[in-house]
């Protein structure tokens, strides 16, 4: 596992107009290293926490807020610490450095984050972070499905192609719309009249944040995203695909999908033929295969068998599932499962 051993300056700049959770949000405060590590392992990602220098002492403060597939975390350690996270999960960590400095290492790349910069940690790859004592971040944990859904909506690409962000720190100005959206959300969270508790609004905001992130920060599929502007799927197709993804485990049919899309079954079929060169039910089967593949690629020894995962997404005939899976991904379901367990 890579380690960050170079010490970071004790003091760093402060962002003049930072974005963060309001003081009235519930806060967790601790000065014990093990207590802090246990708290954040549950709230954000499992990791190990150690002091970077001989100086021992923390003044840790964390505020968190859930927003559907995203969680917002305003945090500062009040001590020089190093975080070492293993192969941590199927989500991204978007980090806005508000004060101080942080050194980030992942996949062999190391770079410094100064106050006023933003960076991404990609899923399923170990990383380390060394914080300065005065460091403060707004860290957003984003489920991979949220970004996959936006990418699939606009480009038609399936989720088997993982989105990987470039290992770099951008200045806040490069992420202008994303930053402004977060400022609005953080400001609204502190209001009694906020409607962020409603799932309808949360879902739309997560979608907007995911889209802004995909446009603001360089990644391996940015060309496909930019090229898709001239061939955007109509709203009914996007609504249908989102409904399919959210209800892939349910016994839904064409009539259910058409109702969710807000058009007739005939109009929906016409839209899919024109935009996707497919049918709604064929697309539903593709989505279920993609979700099954994602589950197989993530599961461990006790995470489920091929049969249980196939059944989870409505594939009652195991042989047919295996044949369709191999035709789409050029490998058997058992091979995907075996590779992950190894």
Question: What are the key terms here?
Answer:
12 helices; Jelly Rolls; 342 residues; five-stranded antiparallel beta sheet; seven-stranded antiparallel beta sheet; globular; single chain; 41% helix; disordered N terminus; Arc Repressor Mutant, subunit A; alpha+beta
Tally of extended strands?
Answer: 12
The backbone outline, from C-alpha atoms, is globular
- Spatially, the strands of the biggest sheet line up as 1-3-4-11-6-9-12
Gyration radius from CA atoms, angstroms = 22 Å
What's the number of domains?
2
User: What series of H and E elements makes up the topology?
Assistant: EHEEEEEEEEEEHEHHHHHHHHHH
Roughly what is the average pLDDT, rounded to an integer? 85
Q: How far apart are the first and last residues' alpha carbons, in Å?
A: 18 Å
Largest sheet: 7 strands, antiparallel
What's the topology here?
Elements: E1 27-30, H1 33-43, E2 48-51, E3 60-67, E4 70-76, E5 81-85, E6 91-99, E7 101-106, E8 109-114, E9 117-121, E10 127-131, E11 136-143, H2 144-155, E12 170-171, H3 176-189, H4 199-216, H5 222-227, H6 235-246, H7 254-261, H8 265-275, H9 280-298, H10 306-312, H11 318-329, H12 333-341
Antiparallel strand pairs: 1-3, 2-5, 3-4, 4-11, 5-10, 6-9, 6-11, 7-8, 7-10, 9-12
Structure write-up:
With 342 residues, this protein is of the alpha+beta class. It is 41% helix and 20% strand. The chain is built from twelve helices and twelve strands. A seven-stranded antiparallel beta sheet has the order 1-3-4-11-6-9-12. Strands 2-5-10-7-8 form a five-stranded antiparallel beta sheet, with helices on one face. Helix 9 (280-298) packs parallel to helix 12. The protein is globular.
């Amino acid at each position: 596992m890579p380690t960050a051993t170079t010490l970071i300056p004790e003091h760093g700049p402060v962002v003049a107009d930072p974005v963060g959770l309001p003081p009235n949000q519930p806060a967790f405060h601790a000065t014990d290293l093990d207590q802090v590590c246990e708290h954040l392992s549950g709230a954000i990602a499992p990791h190990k926490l150690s002091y970077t220098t001989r100086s021992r002492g923390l003044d840790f403060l964390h505020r968190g807020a859930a927003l559907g597939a995203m969680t917002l975390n305003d945090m500062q350690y009040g001590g020089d610490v190093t975080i070492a996270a293993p192969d941590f999960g199927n989500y991204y960590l978007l980090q806005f450095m508000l004060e101080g400095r942080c050194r980030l290492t992942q996949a062999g790349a190391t770079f410094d984050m100064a106050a006023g910069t933003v960076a991404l940690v990609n899923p399923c790859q170990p990383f380390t972070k060394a914080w300065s004592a005065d460091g403060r971040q707004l860290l957003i944990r984003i489920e991979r499905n949220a970004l996959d859904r936006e990418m699939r909506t606009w480009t038609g690409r399936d989720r088997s192609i993982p989105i990987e962000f470039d290992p770099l720190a951008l200045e806040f100005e490069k992420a202008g719309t994303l930053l402004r959206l977060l400022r609005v959300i953080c400001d609204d969270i502190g209001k009694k009249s906020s409607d962020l508790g409603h799932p309808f609004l949360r879902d739309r905001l997560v979608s907007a944040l995911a889209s802004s992130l995909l446009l603001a920060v360089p990644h391996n599929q940015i060309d496909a995203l930019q090229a898709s502007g001239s061939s955007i799927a109509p709203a009914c197709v996007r609504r249908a695909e989102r409904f399919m993804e959210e209800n892939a485990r349910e016994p839904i049919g064409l009539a259910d999908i058409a109702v969710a899309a807000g058009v007739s079954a005939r109009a929906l079929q016409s839209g899919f033929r024109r935009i996707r060169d497919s049918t709604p039910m064929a697309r539903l089967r593709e989505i279920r295969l993609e979700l099954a593949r994602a589950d197989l690629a993530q599961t461990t020894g006790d995470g489920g068998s091929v049969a249980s995962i196939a059944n989870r997404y409505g594939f009652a005939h195991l042989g047919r599932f295996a044949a369709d899976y191999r035709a789409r991904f050029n490998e058997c379901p058992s091979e995907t499962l075996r590779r992950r367990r190894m």
